Amino acid sequence: MTRVTTTDLWHHYGRARAAQDRAVPDSFHWAWDQQAGPGPEVLGDLTGKTVADLGAGAARHAAHLAVHHAPDRVDAVDASPAQHGLATTLYADLAPRLHLVHADVVAHLRAHPGAYDVLYSNFGAVDFTDPRELLPAAAHALRPGGRLAFSTLAHYLSGQPAQPDVTAAEVPAKTPEGESATLHRWVLRKHVWTDLLNQAGFTDIHTEELPATNGPRPATTLLITAGHPTT
Ligand SMILES: C[S@@+](CC[C@H](N)C(=O)[O-])C[C@H]1O[C@@H](n2cnc3c(N)ncnc32)[C@H](O)[C@@H]1O
Known about the structure:
Strands 3-2-1-4-5-9-8 form a 7-stranded mixed β-sheet, sandwiched between helices. Strands 6-7 form a two-stranded antiparallel sheet. It is of the alpha/beta class. The chain has helices at 15-20, 60-68, 81-91, 105-110, 125-128, 131-141, 190-199, and strands spanning 50-54, 73-78, 98-102, 116-122, 142-153, 169-174, 180-185, 203-210, 221-227. The chain contains 7 helices and 9 strands, in the order αβαβαβαβααβββαββ. The protein has a single domain (47-227), classed as Rossmann fold (3-Layer(aba) Sandwich). The structure holds S-adenosylmethionine (SAM). Residues 10, 13, 55-57, 61, 77-80, 83, 104-106, 122-125, 128-129 line the site of S-adenosylmethionine (SAM).
């Protein structure tokens, strides 16, 4: 069943930055610190491709791809009214190459079979949605030859190891009014992700660990790519 969120727990995310940084980013990184390491080349040549960012937030990654990588279209999908609002404020003028979609990704992917060449999540919806729902929906929405790529935490921010099975953790969040709340985050070991991708029918699965760098909350990134079930 698709998760229904009644309170927007992403209200505060990226809000301070959006007030002062309205630029289309000139780079795109997968690593947790967003400073270095592999970039959009992981997605292949995007020229003329139909792409979706799953859990796009303010759509900074999607805006970068729309401006610098000549796709036919990037759909920046996010369920949060606040995040969709930020994306609209920042990047609505990049339409029609950038298309801002206010939707739950599972519902959106199920409603668009075979619509996409490339799906990606940069610490986005893949981290915060039951993968037993999201990954089959992603497989359904990809065209033959299409690929899924996502970056996720290789371990909890506390340093605790990732889960050895498909278990979500409750992580702290804030309501729009600033009250404490929790949301689900799936922090899973590499083999758990590859098993889930195999079960969803994906092939040609690659995983890579991007080492943590210095910073206030350093974390190792797990970068995973997988091919459409029929490739
Ligand atoms: C940590 S933020 C990352 C945003 C963006 N990828 C970035 O790098 O800034 C996670 C985003 O995923 C979105 N999200 C989580 N689950 C989702 C779902 N099932 N459908 C749509 N968006 C979702 C949240 O609303 C939030 O904006």
